[in-house]
Structure formats: structure tokens, C-alpha cells
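Explain this record to help learners:
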Amino acid sequence: SPVFPGPGLSKGVPNGGMAQFQEEMRQQLETSMHAELEKLLDTATGVSKKDFDGFKKLFHRFLQVEGPSVDWPKIHRPPEDSIQPYDKIAALPLPDSLADSLNKLVVVKLNGGLGTSMGCKGPKSLISVRNENTFLDLTVQQIEHLNKKYNTDVPLVLMNSFNTDEDTKKILQKYTHHRVKIHTFNQSRYPRINKESLLPVATDIGMTGENADVWYPPGHGDIYASFYNSGLLDQLITEGKEYIFVSNIDNLGATVDLNILHHLVSQPNGKRCEFIMEVTDKTRADVKGGTLIQYDNKLRLLEIAQVPKAHVDEFKSVTKFKIFNTNNLWISLGAIKRLQEQNAMDMEIIVNPKTLDGGQNVIQLETAVGAAIKSFDNALGINVPRSRFLPVKTVSDLLLVMSNLYSLEAGSLTMSQKREFPTTPHVKLGSSFTKVQEYQTRFESIPDMLELDHLTVSGDVTFGKQVSLKGTVIIIANHGDRIDIPAGTILENKIVSGNLRILDH
């Protein structure tokens, strides 16, 4: 974020007048921003003024921030009792009737993202991940299974963005006869701002042509304001709902956990826990994940973007910061309402720089849902098994969840009991596999991976049917070469390189 005054702005400013000068600059920028936003609003009908009010607040806070948002020496490890081991929570006996607890719950999935990183158009939640089931299909199956088994009414709420709303709503018709009530609301639409002038790039409120990429959904921290503004939060409270379980729709490990739910609803009234963050042990693959710290006597989420450059390596160390945030969160609906109405939801601003197609440098201001943890009473971290964090961000992740490493039951994926080690293999597929369509043409069937530890594939490689991969397998086709792994091949601790073509006779 900019440190004011900017380059050259302070020339000729007498000492002592600096603070006043900076404040005047901020006020000028804010006045200019408000004027531009009013012009944009004049070009439209039916656009939410609440969106722009939210953006004004965020921009105002952005102008106040100077330098990193954390003072490194004030960071401490959280106290022992503030992060509970999952085993301790799971050791408590569950009541005979879980229906009462489940009827207080709402499942919320963050559904604002597109499938572009996997070469797909449209919402990511509509990509097929297992037996032709999409992320959304699996979510609906999980909740329907709970509602049937316990005779309950756990609804599903999708937080869409302007990128995903239309396509998602079309597909929701197919779940009409499922035993799950589905609600949607939209996160805000904020203007990207010019990095130099700090004014909106948009010339009008439209979203086509020149304006196609000048708007953005402002990160999942926007859930609190958008949920509240939609009226859905109040509706669910009126229906007797008390907690939401929030997670990313692409995290296939984020299923409703009855032990955590019971822990939440069984707290005595004065000690009610308003926020639980599921964390899990860091591995080398998770060094960039946000972690929980103690800061100013509050539990707080520390993201890599907030860390001063000199301390980034320390932040990534697995020894000092041992856990990371899975973004599986359990939050009190009543507390969200209270904090929104008191304007007391405090989240650090993430400044995300982008370059538009025309080469223009812009910034977008975002917040993260977990960053609000410090605003809630009796917040708690629970160190959960790694199995609750199974995100599908790349085609390499997709290969894992489609394989025989996992079995699927009632929408939930669980590690196969036939695998001797509970760890997930490390899979790295090269650039020929980045798009889902390309990936599908390169595998005649998904290989057996029950005994796999590590797989690296690079270059033009295809796999025949019923291939088995064990131990460490590295397959590298150099530029201009192609490797076809024949049907039925068993590769165990092998490096395959060179050229291997199998042609139909």
C-alpha cells in the first residue's frame, strides 16, 4: 500500500508540516475517489449503492495504512489452550440426538472463483472432479445425506460473485428435488484502481468491452457485509440458525464435522465460542499459508502478504509457525450481525497488484474471511487432521482425487484403507497437463496410485489403460520427443526419459 506522501510530493514542505500535508493529500484523494464513484453510479440503474459504500470504507482505511500491518517483535506463538488438538474435541461423547445441533447449522461455500487456472470457462464449482460429479454436486450430496440420515434441515448457501452467479443459478435447477434448501447471495463488485492516480479505471458501470476487466470481487472477507446486506443472514437467524460452516468449494475435505459442531453448541452461554478456525500442520508445500499468532493479546491470522520482507523466510519456516489456516471456519451468525451493526469487523487490507490486458497497472483492495478472527469473542483454533484440507487448485490435484487413493461415499472423499501411509503423494504434472481437456486426453484411464510417493511428469507424455505407479516415478520427454506409457505398465522407482511411441497397427 502507498506510503504517503508519494515521490516528490513533499518537496518544499517545511518540517513539522509533514503530517498536516499528508492528511491533506489523503483528503484530496478521498474526495476525488468519491466524485468518481458518484459519476459511475450516475451511469447505471439498479447497481447496489451498498457496494460503493463498502468500497469507500475500504479505500478510506487503505489511505490510513503506512508500511507493513504488523510489528514483528509483537508477534507471539498462540497460548497452548487457544489451539486445541482435534483428538481432544473428538474424545467428547456425542449426544444421542444430533438433530438439534444440525438444525442450528448452515453450510456456506465460497463460490466466487472461475476455473481459469485449470483451463476451464465458467465457475470452478462446475468442473467434474469424480465420476462425472462436480464440486457442487458433491457438496449437495454431502448435505442431503446428513439431512436424510438425521432428519434435519441443514441449508446450503453459496456466496457467488458477478463472475459465477448467472451460470450457478442456471445449474441449481437440477437440485430442485434434492433434500437441501439452497440459497445464494452475491459478494460485492468493487472498482480496480489505477496504481498511479489511485482513481477507478472504469468509465461507466458496464461490464463489457473496455470495462470487462475493471471490476473485481474483493476477496472472501467480503462475506460478512454481503451476507448481512443481502437480508439472508437475518432470515436464517429468524429460522433458528446459529452457526455457519464456511469453506472454499474446491476443498473436498471440508465436510460437516459433527465433533466440532457439538463442541460449538455445547459451550456454556457466557463462554460461547463465536469463531473456530480449522488449522492443520504445515508441510513444505504449505509454507505460504496464513498462520495463527498471538498479537496484542488477541488470536490473529497472519498472511504472507502482511509479513515484512526481512521476515518472509522466518514466516515460511515449519519450525516457528507449525500450522496454517485451512479456511474451514465455524462462525456465529448472531456475532456477525452484532459486529456488522457496530461497524466493528476488523480485517487487514490485502493490496493485490494486477496488470490489465492493455498493460495498465492497477491495484485491487481485498480482505480475507479468516482475518476477522480477532473481532470475535472466545475465538479458537482446532488443529484438524490433514484429511480436512483437500483443495483442488491444479490438474495435479485433480489427478489425485480422481484416483484409487480415495473412495467416494455420499459425496465425501476418504483416503483408501488400502493405502499403507496416510500421506498424500506429491504429484507435479508439467505444462502439457495444465488444462483439464488436455489432461483428459493424456490418460486413457487414471493410473493405480495406491503405492505412489512422488510423481513428476514433464513434456509430451500419455498414459495407456491400467498403468500402475509406485514409489518415485519421474517421466521426462524432452522437447520434440514423446513418451507413451503402454497399457498395463507397472513403474516402480523409475526414471523414464527419451522417446517411446506406441502406434496403432
Remarks:
- Confidence is low (pLDDT under 50) at residues 1-13.
- Residues 18-42 form the longest helix (25 residues).
- The radius of gyration is 25 Å.
